[in-house]
UniProtKB/TrEMBL annotation:
It comes from the Bacteria. Transmembrane segments: none annotated. Residues 24-82 form the HTH marR-type domain. This is HTH-type transcriptional regulator. It comes from Glaciecola siphonariae. Pfam families: MarR_2. Belongs to the GbsR family. Keywords: DNA-binding, Transcription, Transcription regulation. PANTHER family: HTH-TYPE TRANSCRIPTIONAL REGULATOR MJ1563-RELATED (PTHR38465:SF1).
Length: 185
């Protein structure tokens, strides 16, 4: 990488590239996005390529992918013909977009397969058992999907509050179980 980044920024950009490959886009796309997240101002494709030490063509393809995910926007500077790129929305918006895209690519096809499997009549005891397990998986994924969709409708402030509350709720549940267990003895 170019020396324009400090070791801390470079470390983050590299790591984000690795994480991006786990989120459904390639390492370079993750690095481009991380660089844009960390910059206060929009960058042109040449600046991105130079900073990351990658080809201009690779940057163009990465920006197209990020644009298809609706994670980047384009701005123009007066008197300059180049496009400058910036991240769209907040970090919460990014997390929602990544989750939504992963849901479309991973969970939706799985749910479709599970529904199709449940519509078939079992041919024997083994298939009956398998279908019961498939129903459990379907119900779990459906509940998780409904829950996450309801979370996505909350504001960042509400989500922060809910997450802080979450730790307290688990303590209350643990306490209730301990108290309930003692009364039963």
């Amino acid at each position: 990488m170019n020396r324009k980044m400090t070791p801390m920024l470079e470390s983050f950009v590299y790591h984000f590239g690795e994480m991006g490959s786990r989120w459904g886009f390639n390492r370079t796309v993750g690095q481009i996005y991380a660089l844009l997240v960390l910059k206060e101002y929009p960058l042109c494709a040449n600046e991105i390529a130079e900073t990351l030490g990658i080809s201009r063509g690779n940057v163009s393809m990465g920006l197209k992918e990020l644009n298809s995910w609706q994670l980047v926007g384009t701005v123009h500077k007066p008197g300059d013909r180049k496009d400058y790129y910036h991240t769209k929305g907040s970090i919460w918006d990014m997390a929602n977009k990544v989750f939504e895209e992963r849901r479309k690519r991973e969970i939706d096809p799985t749910m479709s397969l599970l529904r199709d499997s449940l519509m078939d009549s079992p041919g024997n005891k083994e298939e009956e058992y398998a279908q019961a397990r498939i129903q459990e998986i379907h119900d779990l994924l459906e509940n998780i999907t409904k829950w996450t969709q309801s979370l996505q409708s909350l504001s960042p402030e509400q989500l922060n509050g809910l997450m802080k509350l979450g730790a307290g709720v688990s303590k209350v549940i643990d306490l209730k179980q301990k108290i309930g267990g003692k009364k039963a003895n």
